[in-house]
Amino acid sequence: MTMLPERAPGARKMGLVIDLDTCVGCHACAVNCKEWNTGGEAGILPDYDKYGANPDGVWFNRIHSYETDSPQRSRTVNFPRSCLHCENPLCVTVCPTGASFKRAEDGIVLINTDICIGCKLCSWACPYGAREFDEDNGVMRKCTLCIDRIYNEALPEAEREPACVATCPAKARHFGDLADPASPVAKLVEERGGVDLLAELGYRPTNKYLPPRQAQIPSGPEETPAQPAPGVGGALLRLLDKALSR
Amino acid sequence: MRPAASILLLTTLTGFAYGLLAWLGLYAAAGAAGADRTLILIGVGLVIVLATAGLATSALHLGRRERAWRAFSQWRSSWLSREGVAALFTYPVTLAFVACVYRAPHAPLTRLLGAAATLAGLGTVYCTAMIYGSLKPIRQWHNRHTAPDYLIFALFSGGTLFALLHTVVIGTGAWPAALVALAAAVALLAKLAYWRHIDQQQPLATLASAIGMAHDTVVRPLDAPHFTENFVLREMGFQIARRHGMKLRRIALGLGFLLPLLLSLLGAAGGVPLVSSALAVACAALGLLTERWLFFAQATHVSALYYGRSV
Amino acid sequence: MSVKSVAHTTCYMCACRCGIKVHLEDGRLRYIEGNRDHPINRGVLCAKGSAGIMTALSPARLRGPLKRTGPRGSGTFEAISWEEALRLLTERLTAIRASDPNRLALFTGRDQSQSLTGHFARMFGTINFAAHGGFCSVNMAAAGLYSLGGAFWEFGEPDWEHARLFLLFGVAEDHDSNPIKLGLARLKARGAKIVSFNPVRTGYSAIADEFIAVTPGTDGLLVLALIHCLLEAGQIDTEFLVRYTNAHHLVIDQPGSAEHGLIARDAEGRPLAFDRTSGALVAAETLGIDPALVGRFTLPEGSAARPAFALLAERYSEPSYAPEAVAARCGVAATTIRRLAAQIAEAAFHQPVVLEQPWTDTAGRRHERMVGRPVAIHAMRGISAHSNGFHSCRAIHVLQMLLGAVDTPGSWRYKSPYPKPIPGGGPPGRTVGPPGTPLDAAPLGFPLGPEDLLVDAEGEALRLDRAFSWEAPLAIHGLMHMAIARAFEAGAQKIDTLFLFMSNMAWNSAMNPGETTRMLSATDEHGEYRIPFVVVADAFASETVAYADLVLPDTTYLERYDCISLLDRPIGSAHGPADAIRVPVLDPGRDVRPFQDVLIELAGRLGLADFTAAQGGPLYASYADYIVRHQRRPGIGPLAGFRGADGTAVGRGEPNPDQLRRYVQNGGFWSQHLPPQQLYYKFANRDYLLGAQQMGFIGSADPIVLQLYCEPLQRLRLAAEGHGPRVPPQRLRARIARYCDPLPIWYLPLEQSMSERSRYPLHAITQRPMAMYHSWGSQNAWLRQILPENRLYLHRELAAELGIEDEDWVWVESRTGRVKARARTMSGVNRHTVWTWNAVGKRAGAWGLKPDAPEFTRGFLLNHVISEFLPGSGADAPQSNSDPVTGQAAWFDLTVRLERCPPDSPDETAPRPGANPLRIKPRSEKPT
Fold first, then answer.
1. Could you say which of A57, B135, C18, C58 would form a disulfide bridge with C779 (CB–CB 3.0 to 4.6 Å)?
2. In what order do the strands lie in the sheet with C250-253?
3. How far is it, in rounded angstroms, from Cα C790 to Cα C770?
């Protein structure tokens, strides 16, 4: 059913918080996602021309890098991009078959590949480029928030998180219930000023991104200290005059 | 957006078909069906052939054609589903209409069914238009032009067919040609207004907002995630050079609207009606295919921002 | 119902050695994830590790032993049996060993079994052994081991929990990748400040709070300027210096004498210091003295002496080290350098980390708390891969010592089993006795003076690669990058068999691959190959395989046993020692064998001591057997955990036949946590040192005195001045005298001082992409989607100046050649530096890729324009492009110029040497 579900009071909003201040752009999340999902319940994520001229394939998560100049500073920003599990997912409502759907209980947006007809309209409806077409199976594919991990009772509790989160070496990815203001992810968003991507389009993404920031521990003078007056070494000599004890 | 041949054919063919159906329906609704049933019978036959061909072509676009029937289920939210339902609904209405025309061309029911067929056909066109018009990430589609333009182009292109049929079947075509000239002029103005609109539109978003940076941040792409083209870029990052686009616009404008306008005026004035109305159909078909190609090719998708494309 | 299982083993998609859980379904790989209990990666896994499945399925995997049938480089082979391969090799090596064992040169790449391969070489009796350290990071290792008794990366780590200011020098996405990322996350979580000194702002530098786009090769100068500022401001930890370093040791000041610059010692050989309380010369180690750090004193025999610190302070207080004097050269504003120095001092001295943890020093004094200097430093390839890298790295260690920021809370810390006495082992092994006698020590060691060098009567190198000679006296990892060039040069008299393992020496591991492959296939006047016999052991069809006479196919990392041993490059951390194993998870299904198994079988066939049973015949059935039963010293074997008959002993203990099973039960590794009182000040922490001695890490529990002043270098320098029985050849004397300075110096990288700077004004460097590991990435169907070709990155302003736009083809020209690359502009790069990802370009035909793969057509190797020889160094005695102290390959000294290609230039890179895909004649099916 592609009508958006009524959100039950107290329903969870599971999603990711991605820390752009910490992401080093290593692609670990993207590859581990590919690995988990290619053998997962939804079937192989295809690769095309694996060893040839145009290697390509379906990925649920792709890592861009940008250079940014703001009035404060310049920096390089690594940016992982995947489905944001929007609260207002046009990708779901445009689906003619009901293959795309948003779950009422946790807000996860999924594709039922058994009934998808591969019309690609959902990919047109997503401003984030999060849906990709599986040429081998003629259906659309997207991030499942590792639904086959997060509720998998065969896994130890600590491992019930998306593969991208579990594997992230820089701990730049966090998973949790964003509807619960007391959850660690909601607190992170609150403390760090987490933002929506393309907020102006009104999709109300569940996933949030934490913008880059400056170090929090004071690191001493931000201004250049005055160059000591001539008579260099005075301070050192005074220091060396002090008695020492080995 | 990548101009996929199947979709260009679908929208152009169904435009012709349902536009023609509207003309035939209105013709009957106006009580003119009795004058010559043949026109409507042949016309409806053409509508069914063209619409079916268009719909069949569109199935080529699907990854899983055998599941196409599932597309009729989500009419409550999906314009694509509604398009399917509307197209399906149009068949019985059209058949009932043509049956009535055959049996009782003067009956009020026939006139009613003529109006209903018009609405069903144009309704289908409207659904098609709204598939595009509802897509927020594509500013060239998600605007107040898309739906009216599709209807106008359908009426215009269907009109050229109607004028041709009228000329062939009845022998004269002056008044239809005059109406088509009017439709062509409206279509031409609508298209110009559309181009003017999208050329002046502000981008929907900036790369800074796409990656969650403050608005005063200048963002330049450094490295894309993967080196080779991927689905998003192929499907939604389609680009044509501005100069090339302008050339195609002139072709679409001249071939699709201006020539049919002139030919229809010629027909309306009584000059070589068969030749002029036939040429008008051919020009409109080629021109509208070009126009439709541009409608896709010049549409930009917000997701291409991530790859440093301007949208 | 499918059969599912999970195996714990160790990753080998790079050298990080992360613990992994491998999920199998019906015997097929399903999923590889990080092991949450593992001390290295704590559950995380990088892109490479996560792509292990595709490497296990790589089309480049070799399928069986090969014997060359066509010319070298043609790739034409016939498949042979293992029996034939081993017989061939045994015959050849037996003959070599009987005449001159040094005619076997065994060079291994990024393997993690050097304690085995080195031991094989020692028992075989060849000095010609090295691993890849010489072209990787020997500058770091040597500078660290000779200064601190530990080093960056493998022997040390920042105190991620307590550092407030973290300085990264020349660290790209290489080495210790997951631990550094985990550490950065912890710094970020606490809000510590990260400063990255790097010409390129990607990866870790991208998330640094401050990025300093230093000019390549000038980091050492920048650090000396920071030292200048700290001295100027009196911001140094003198208490730390006199307690833990040799700052107060008196250095003989008698220019021209044979003792000049050596540490003054008393009759027992103990260094002397001047006690300001008693006004007398006393043993520097005496407790309670107030040692002078400046001044000039007269020794009993009449010569003058000054504290080492005085020499240091005098040198770096010179105006030539002032920020204003170095700013232009380093590409960093003087005000920035001064501000950074002030921030360093602020963090170290005004925000100390105090842990309420008592500890006891080696003098038996109890300290109530641990006071730390929370300035942590990590440095890597950008420091190491320059010909001035040894001294640059020493400069960083001197900075750490001046701050008292060595193994204290918040600073850089030793990883167990380090620290070791400085330096950490005996001299390199040498040939003793008739052919076939083992060397007297392991082939790689730590020279302390001229007497330890491997040189002949004329002072010329004995080793093929000239390590431990006057050309590279402290080449503690050898000079693998010179092995082929020197073997070609020396000819068959010196070398018969060049045995390479797991290193792509004909391509991305070679400077100048074009010349290297020419040398590999060059013949003499009789039509015989200049390098008579080349054996390559590798799991994959690398470029080098095509140049082998005999190919020994290795398994992938998921198909064999291995040990990550404390005898080699362990996985210990500051929290305690650890080691690990690999276990076979997959059945290879190919006629391949683990290299280590093959080496052990070969050793048995050759009858090498330590590998042969008393009654004759091989001592070990396999590497797994060796791992369990081999004892390097009584009770000490490759694995430290679960020793003793009942598996309860750690460190020392009888071999335990059940050891591997115990490791498997424990998740594939063993680790031990040090008690809190042993976690810092390990160089002088009594409890720690006693424990380390018990474990067999160190021979004695004496304090380890940090070497601000590096006396072994002065011994070499005195020889260059003509003192002593062993002196350098005349042509190298000035060089030794200049570069063997006991205090850090900075000099222009050698190549730059010898080449035409106005013609080649740009620096060119490479870095390793985070998702690739050297040549291995491109065979991986997932990783190559990320990076199937590379770009040459340059600053936007430089590009504008040269009229270069994104995606333009440009010629990158150096003094030795040119390579065609596609440009990409950016702003986060030093204005005068261009760079690219390393090892993406491949030779057509290699790595199982199709002929039109972008790796062949557009990917390029910067190596094509790097020479292994310095310019103008003479055809008779060409000098290697290496650090003159350690022999470290100076990859990053390269300078180039750029020129835009004409617009009609074909859309492909150049040079593109002809393809050499493997063409293998199948084995005839005759019964054996």
1. C58
2. C250-253, C304-307, C297-298
3. 13
In whole angstroms, give the CA distance from residue C714 to residue C390: 15
Q: In terms of residues, how long is chain B?
A: 311
C775 contacts C861 by C-beta, under 8 angstroms: no
Domain locations in chain C? 1-45, 752-900
Spans of all domains in chain A: 14-210
Q: Which two tokens stand for residue C368?
A: 């109530």
Phi, psi of C825 (to 5 degrees): -100, 155
Q: Which of A78, A220, A233 sits opposite C347 (nearest CB)?
A: A220
Which of A64, A121, A133 lies nearest to residue B231, judging by beta carbons? A133
Task: Nearest chain C residue to B228 by CA: give it.
Answer: C785
Please state, in angstroms and rounded to a whole number, the distance separating the CA atoms of residues C108 and A206.
51
Contact by Cβ (8 Å): C769, C837:
yes
Chain B contact present for A106, CB below 8 A:
no
Q: Quickly list DSSP for C42-55.
A: TT---HHHHTHHHH
* C853 to chain B: closest CA residue: B228
Cβ–Cβ under 8 Å, residues A45 and A34: yes
Gap between the Cα atoms of A22 and A216, Å rounded? 14
Q: Which fold has domain C1-45?
A: N-terminal domain of TfIIb (2.20.25)
Q: Where does C365-422 have alpha helices with state H?
A: 381-384, 389-403
CA distance A194 to A213: 11
Number of neighbours of residue B81 by Cβ within 10 angstroms: 25
Cβ atoms B233, A129 nearer than 8 A: no
Please tell me whether the overall predicted TM-score, pTM, comes out greater than 0.80 for this model.
yes
| Subunit contact A118:B84, Cβ cutoff 8 A | no
- The whole-angstrom distance between residue C663's C-alpha and the CA centroid of its chain comes to 28
**To probe the interface with B, which of A117, A123, A140 has the most B CB atoms within 10 Å?**
A117
- Distance (Å, rounded) from C-alpha C96 to C-alpha C93? 5
Q: Look at C853 and A222 and tell me if their CB atoms are within 8 Å.
A: no
Residue among C367, C415, C412 nearest C692 (CA): C415
State the Cα–Cα distance between residues C72 and C811, nearest whole angstrom: 30
Chains that touch A (3 or more CB pairs under 8 A): B, C
Residue A204 to residue A188: CA distance in whole angstroms: 18
Mean pLDDT, consecutive 10-residue segments, chain C of 928 residues? 90 94 92 96 97 96 98 97 98 97 93 91 97 91 97 94 97 85 96 97 96 98 98 96 98 97 97 97 96 96 96 97 97 97 96 97 96 97 96 98 98 96 89 95 97 96 97 96 94 93 94 96 94 97 97 97 92 96 96 97 96 92 97 95 96 96 97 97 98 95 97 98 96 96 97 90 95 93 97 98 97 96 97 97 96 96 95 73 97 97 95 92 72
Q: Which residues of A touch C193 (CB under 8 A)?
A: 215, 217, 219
SS3 C88: helix
Residue C419's φ and ψ, nearest 5 degrees, are -80, 155
- CA-wise closest residue to C97 among C71, C64, C133, C128: C128
Neighbours of C905 (CB within 10 A): 14
The ipTM (two decimal places) reads 0.96
Cβ contact B227–C827 (<8 Å): no
Q: Architecture of A14-210 per CATH?
A: 2-Layer Sandwich (3.30)
CA distance C5 to C24: 5
Which two structure tokens, joined as six digits, stand for C236?
A: 């140094």
Contact B137, B303 (CB under 8 A): yes
Q: How far apart are CA C168 and CA C172, in angstroms?
A: 9
